[in-house]
Amino acid sequence: MKKRRVQIEGYENGVTLAKAWISEGLMLCPEGEVIEGGYRLVDESYTEDEDVDLNLLALWEKRAVERGDRKAQERIRTWNEETFLAYVGTIHKRALSEKLDKNRYPEVQGLAAYKDREAKGIADVFGTDYRRVLLCKDIYRGPTYMFVTEGREQGRCELQKCTTVIFKKSPVGSIIGRNMDSGIHAMDGLQTYGEPVLYQYPEEMGYSYIYPIQINSRGLMIQGSSIGYPNEPISESGFRVDGYDLILRFSETVDDAIELIGRYNLFFEPAPSSLAVVDVNGDAAIIEKTKNTFAVRKTDRRSIFTTSGVAVEKKTRKIQGDNTQTYQFEFKRHQLIENLLLEEEKAPTIEAMQRIMSNHITPSPVCRHLENLSPYSQLVTLYSFVLIPREQVYYFSLIRPGPVYPCQQESTKYSYWFI
Question: Are residues 171 and 142 in the same domain?
C-alpha cells in the first residue's frame, strides 16, 4: 500500500505529492484517469506513445470532435494555450475571493487558499505553470469545457460512465462492486493503477481515506456515476469543492454524507452525478445530484445500485428528461441490473457480485467491450473491483493492451489498513 502523509501547509503538501508521483512514474494530465487528491494523472510511459498529445489545445479539440461539437472545435482553433490558462486563472481567482459563511460551511474555511498553495507547490516540482496544474482538477475541467462550448456542455457528464452495486449485508458484511467505464484511449495511462493509496490526514483535517476505492477510516465509502442534466441552469458560484474528499473527510454515516451534500450542493463537484454511499453499519443510499438539487433513494431490499446516464427518482428524472434515445438506452442497463439483483441478492456473495459486474447482456451491458458498443455509448470498462470493507480487502481487475478486459482476467487481491 502506498502512503501519502498530508501536510498541514498547502505548499508543502503540493511538493510532497508531486515528488511521490514522480518517484512512481506518474505525471499530470487533464485527461488522465488515475485520480489522486482531486488531480488527474497518467503513467509516465503513456506520453511515449506517438499518438498521445498533451498539448491543451489538442486535448480539448479532441474532446470537441468526439462530441461532434463543430462550434467548439472552431472556437478552439482561434485560440492559443494562454486563452485556456487565463480562463482557468480567472475562475480560480473567483474561488479564492469568495467568502463562505463560517457557521454554515466550517469544513471548507481556508480550503481554497490551501489548494492554491498546494497547486503552486506541485507546479514548482514539475516545473510548469500552476494554472496547468489547476486544469488537472475536476473542479476546473467542467467549467473550462463550458467556456469552450459557450455553456452548451457541462463538461464531465459524458466522460465516464460507471456502475456501482451494493449488497448492504451478507455473511462478510457489505459487498460493493464497481465498474469504471471510459474511452479506450485511457487504457495505456492506467497500467499501474489499482494498488491502495492511503491519504493520511492530520486529525484536525478530518478522516483519512483510501484511493481508488474511496473508503475512509470510519468505513464509509462513496462512488459516483455520471449523469447529464443539459437543460438545468448552473450555479454562478466561483467556489467548487471536491465532493468526494469533503464527504470522506467529514462523514461517518450515510446520513452525515446526505447532510453535507444538502449544505454544499451548489459547490459540489462532480456536479451532475449519481452517488452511491454505504457505511460500516450497512446503511446505504443513492443520491441523484443535479447541479442545483438532489434526490435520495434508500430501500428495504438487501441491495441498492446506480448506473450512469439515468436519473430514476421522480424529481431528478423530470429535470433530466426521459424521452431521449440515449436515456432509454441507459435505462435498459438499469433494468438489467435490477433484474439480476432479484436473483443474486438472495445469496449475496463475492462471486454473485462478480457475476453482476461482468454481465454482457446487450444492448446495454454492465461490462462494456469494443465489440458491444452502441451509437449511444463509445466507452469500455477500464477497471472493475469488488470491495469487502469488513475484511479491508478488494479484488481489482484492470484492462490490459489487446484489449484484455477486466472480466477476462484473474483479479488482484489488495489489502488496506489505516494508521
Answer: no
